[in-house]
Design a protein that fits this description.
The complex is a heterodimer of chains A (317) and B (377).
Chain A: H1 31-42, E1 46-50, H2 54-59, E2 71-73, H3 79-96, E3 106-112, H4 114-118, H5 121-130, E4 135-140, H6 180-185, E5 191-195, H7 200-212, E6 217-222, H8 236-245, E7 252-255, E8 258-261, H9 272-275, H10 286-307
Parallel strand pairs in A: 1-2, 1-3, 3-4, 4-6, 5-6
Antiparallel strand pairs in A: 5-7, 7-8
Helix pairs in contact in A: 1-7, 3-5
Chain B: E1 5-10, H1 11-22, E2 24-29, H2 36-48, E3 52-55, H3 59-71, E4 75-80, H4 82-87, H5 89-98, E5 102-110, E6 116-120, H6 127-130, E7 139-141, H7 146-163, E8 166-172, H8 173-177, E9 179-184, H9 241-256, H10 259-262, E10 265-268, E11 275-278, H11 282-296, E12 301-306, E13 308-310, H12 314-320, E14 326-331, H13 338-344, E15 351-355, H14 364-375
Parallel strand pairs in B: 2-3, 2-4, 4-5, 5-8, 7-8, 11-12, 11-14, 14-15
Antiparallel strand pairs in B: 1-9, 5-6, 7-13, 10-12
Helix pairs in contact in B: 1-2, 1-7, 3-5, 11-14, 12-13
Classes of the chains: A alpha/beta (317), B alpha/beta (377).
């Protein structure tokens, strides 16, 4: 299934815009980048089902909308369920002869980490198990940013949030990030991928593959958040790149059981480079940074063993 | 106590301080505007006093965690807003059925559905009473100031422990974010009763004349079964018409028959009032300013404010409107509080409704103008 990637350089990116500028996302927010490129891949024959979250509130404030495609906002927990309904309705309309059976309609569920890892997990699991042809795109900013930076199941260990304070008792979040893409993979989902906005062609290729998949697909995108991660707005993409270069984040795909790391890292950088750029990790001691480095080392070891060769290289700085 | 101090804080913060003083040592919640500051403050304050803060994966988890915590003996609380309160209804019913004391804060926001997260509304007054299915009674209070938010949080825990019931503390986006002086001082704290009978003779759901059962917490050495199914005095599921009747009567009458002791209200200038305004929460502050102004201009206006929305202070309202030609209910909804007002007053043709359908509170002048219209037809 792999073959040559469809999007290779910036010149392959379509000119057509289906996600308009002028929305109210924070300056430097990378969620806008993700949504914009997502719709460039999907095109006009697309229905977006959007969970409550940053993207939802800031792209549809009256009297404006950024969405030039049909768009549905549901409650917090039911994106996958509502998307299942939309997809089923299209099948029914085709069966009834109301809709041309050859028309291809992309159904995209778009949700943040809170709406996916936590409150939306049940609906997501149901959608995957029933096998609806929906691409679920998770933009992961690792906390409930829309309600004011509360921890979520996605918040990484040691990160400060307003509900994982740093003080004498707590040192930020004390639990690990939930492995959501692996959980989705375990459902036997035909296409599961992780990406980030720095590797935008990688991300777009994954959106394309997801939309072409017969059955459910899941693309998990890291979305650095200037407000919640506490970094200067201009560093969003740089932090996204550092996430890959330090292997804090690994871009991989599981395409019908074929596992591949799509962005290889020959020389890996120390996690310090990624962590020290973010205010949410500013309280970390050198020892805690090394603890994180150790867990990344283990993760890299496992990934290399899984792939059968060194796709993520040794730590060099 | 030397613990008295004066702070400047918002309604959410006052609720946190009240809960800590009332003995709340377990909080489970899920972020939702405009109640999130309660979770945020709790995550800082509880570890300082040896309590536990847990963030649930959703509202279902949050409410069921506090049900479990309370069954194990902790004073427990959660806070939410409309959409989350809707999800919590099943857990609230479970707490009612198992007679588990809890405090649930619902900071009302504009709705229905997601509505407007950061703006106030008063649409959940009925939901706080009738939101969960089948037959039950509940206690619900609605403060109008930061100070009262603190006081009523302690009161809510006390009522919950005394009557072994969940208590809904209503607020709204105005109260949540409004900052005022708060005088923190030691209040009386009530803890749930411990069984006096020995294991073997003890029956957890047996009622004495107070109508409130004495339910042992888990780990206290008693064989206690807590069941969401219809249960008899031993706590066992028992499919039998008399048991069902006794069970439902038990959980409703302990509130109904103790209503006079639970009810709280405020009645201002109602003795000779020709027009009585009924309002609750921060909306009553506007009404209060309005009637003070109206009095200065020679109008015989008064105000009645239910502090416990449920049980609704029916008898007190009746007394307060004896001389009234008009009873005007003012609320930020299409009409919720107006129903218990109408149920309380026999000749309810004189009850009028002013629905303020803006999420920003009216000014006293605006409100007076609207009430004037009702009076003059």
């Amino acid at each position: 299934m792999s073959g040559k990637p469809f999007f290779r350089t910036i010149f392959d990116v379509p000119h057509e815009e289906y996600f308009s500028p002028g929305h109210g996302l924070c300056a430097g927010c990378t969620a806008g980048t993700i949504a914009k490129l997502l719709l460039k891949v999907a095109g006009p024959n697309t229905i977006v089902v959007n969970a409550t979250g940053c993207v939802e509130v800031s792209t549809t404030t009256y009297p404006y909308t950024s969405w030039n495609v049909p768009w549905l906002h549901v409650a917090f927990e039911n994106t996958a369920a509502a998307a299942s309904g939309v997809e089923s309705a299209i099948i029914a309309l085709k069966k009834k002869g109301i809709m041309d059976p050859s028309t291809k309609v992309n159904v995209i569920a778009l949700a943040g980490d809170g709406g996916t890892y936590d409150i939306g997990l049940q609906a997501l699991s149901g959608m995957l198990e029933r096998g609806h042809r929906v691409m679920y795109v998770l933009y992961d900013n690792e906390a409930y940013m829309n309600t004011g930076i509360q921890r979520s199941g996605s918040t990484p260990e040691f990160a400060w949030t307003t509900t994982t304070p740093v003080g004498s008792q707590w040192k930020g979040k004390m639990q690990q990030k939930k492995p959501i893409a692996e959980i989705v993979s375990a459902h036997g989902t035909p296409y599961v991928a992780t990406s980030n906005p720095n590797n935008f062609t990688d991300m777009m290729n994954k959106f394309k593959k997801g939309l072409e998949t017969e059955g459910p697909s899941f693309v998990h995108v890291l979305q650095p958040c200037t407000t919640g991660w506490k970094f200067d707005p201009r560093y969003g993409i740089e932090i996204s790149r550092l996430a890959t270069e330090t292997a804090m984040w690994i871009n991989w795909e599981n395409d019908h059981g074929e596992f591949r790391v799509t962005v290889t890292v020959p020389r890996r950088r120390h996690v310090r480079n990624y962590l020290r750029m973010q205010g949410r990790f500013s309280h970390l001691t050198e020892q805690e940074v090394n603890e994180i480095q150790d867990s990344v080392n283990k993760k890299v070891e496992n990934i290399n063993r899984l792939v059968g060769k060194t796709v993520i290289g040794p730590l060099v700085e | 106590m030397s613990d008295s101090r004066l702070i400047f804080v918002h309604g959410n913060g006052a609720i946190v301080e009240g809960a800590i003083q009332a003995g709340c040592r377990f909080y489970a919640g899920y972020p939702i505007t405009p109640s999130s500051e309660i979770a945020e403050e709790m995550s800082k304050r509880l570890p300082q006093v040896g309590g536990i803060y847990v963030q649930g994966e959703d509202e279902l988890a949050s409410i069921n965690m506090i049900v479990g915590a309370s069954m194990a003996g902790a004073k427990a609380m959660t806070a939410t807003s409309g959409p989350g309160f809707s999800l919590m209804q099943e857990g609230l019913g479970l707490a009612v059925a198992t007679e588990t004391p809890l405090v649930i804060v619902n900071m009302m926001r504009a709705g229905p559905s997601t509505g407007i997260a950061s703006k106030a509304w008063q649409g959940d007054i009925m939901q706080s009473r009738f939101g969960s299915h089948s037959d039950y009674e509940i206690i619900s209070v609605y403060p109008w100031s930061v100070q009262e938010a603190f006081d009523l949080t302690i009161e809510s825990f006390n009522l919950a422990e005394k009557y072994m019931t969940p208590v809904v503390l209503l607020g709204d986006a105005i109260l949540a974010r409004m900052r005022e002086r708060l005088y923190i001082k030691q209040e009386e704290i009530i803890d749930r009763k411990r069984p006096s009978e020995p294991e073997g003779k003890y029956m957890p759901y047996k009622r004495d004349q107070s109508l409130v059962p004495v339910i042992a917490s888990f780990g206290e050495g008693f064989h206690v079964l807590k069941d969401s199914l219809t249960h008899n005095e031993n706590g066992y599921y028992y499919e039998n018409p008399e048991v069902q009747a006794k069970y439902v009567r038990g959980i409703t009458e302990k509130i109904k028959k103790n209503a006079a002791a639970i009810e709280k209200y405020e009645s201002v200038f109602t003795e000779d009032a020709e027009v009585v305004i009924v309002a609750a929460g921060p909306m009553a502050r506007v009404a209060h300013s309005m009637i003070i102004d109206a009095r200065k201009r020679g109008k015989k206006w008064g105000m009645f404010r239910p502090v416990t929305i449920w049980p609704f202070p029916e008898e007190q309202l009746k007394k307060s409107v004896q001389k009234a030609i008009y009873v005007i209910v003012v609320e930020m909804s299409t009409g919720k509080l107006v129903y218990p007002v109408k149920w309380s007053i026999n000749d309810n043709d004189r009850v009028k409704l002013v629905s303020w359908l803006s999420y920003e509170a009216p000014t006293p002048d605006e409100l007076e103008h609207l009430c004037e219209k009702e009076v003059n037809g």
